[in-house]
Give the backbone structure.
Amino acid sequence: MFRAVYLQKTDAGTIADVRSLDESALPEGDVLVSVEYSTINYKDGLAITGRFPVVRTFPMVPGIDVAGTVESSASPRFKPGDKVLINGYGVGDFHWGGLAQKARVKSDWLIPVPKTFSTQNAMAIGTAGYTAMLCVLALEKHGVRPEQGSVLVTGAAGGVGSISIALLAKLGYTVAASTGRIEETGFLKNLGATQIIDRATLATPGEMVGEEKWAGAIDTVGSATLANVCATTKYRGAVAACGLAQGLDFPTSVLPFILRNVTLYGIDSVMAPYAVRSEAWERLARDLEVDKIEAVTQVLGLDQAIPTAHDILAGKVRGRVVIDVNR
Ligand code: NDP
């Protein structure tokens, strides 16, 4: 038997509880992982509360992040005792995920935990950090350089936002942080931001093109904020868009793209090819000061996963939440 967060679909919506399940209930897969840590990301909040239909089949064990030790493997790539992680690939939405003490998964989804990280470190980073790195890689590959000016991060006090700030600052960029929590100025400056912007100044539709402020940007909130970010990005600059915390609309014009030659990169972590994931994790091992991320991470037990899912959608979570599934 193992403990898990369990989601069921009813006429009244999604119901979540923590219960014991038999190992025989686990889905198909060639590797059995003894899970040590998972996380609560925004998407886990949507899944557990049922606020948005991210879960494709029920019953579901949520948790888009998994880190633990291989217990048994029918794949030659992994052996018992290996430390492994998964981000996305549909776990937690169409295949049972990491908010459980066991996970049976496809070996193709597993990434070895980089040697410099513990399994807890790997989940402090989690999908948020891996996505932040995908955004940074998009800006780097575009040619955004520190000497070209500031890089803006929106949704700054959240998971993707806070790790983006830490990564950009370590790489020598000047970082501006947009937040609705001005009281978190100290937290954001400790991560490496030098300019704090009230997110209210970006949240409503503005000029189609405005003052050129940003050499690049990482946007986690979408909607009018993303439109305003594109409108104030410098000539030939780039914006990496990964989120929808404000909304999934995008009320913009073509002007930033055809007058300013701004490039908008879409970032998807869920189905990113294996080589892209490996590159991101190698760069995280090289460029992320993991102590900084551990300092903004709370570690909670499995029973706290459901209340924390509600908190993250209410914008009450700062930094990262790791779930110790054995606590
Ligand atoms: P968090 O909840 O940790 O962070 C989101 C942040 O957005 C909040 O902390 C808050 O920052 C800001 N925010 C919340 N509500 C609003 C609002 N109404 N208007 C403007 N800003 C708001 O979530 P994550 O970091 O886990 O994820 C961030 C986003 O990125 C989510 O939309 C998520 O779905 C998406 N995502 C996408 C991925 C992909 O593969 N494309 C992968 C991972 C995440 P503050 O308080 O500082 O204003």
Residues 119-142 form the longest helix (24 residues). The two ends are 16 Å apart (CA to CA). The longest strand covers residues 2-10. DSSP finds nine helices and 15 strands in the chain.
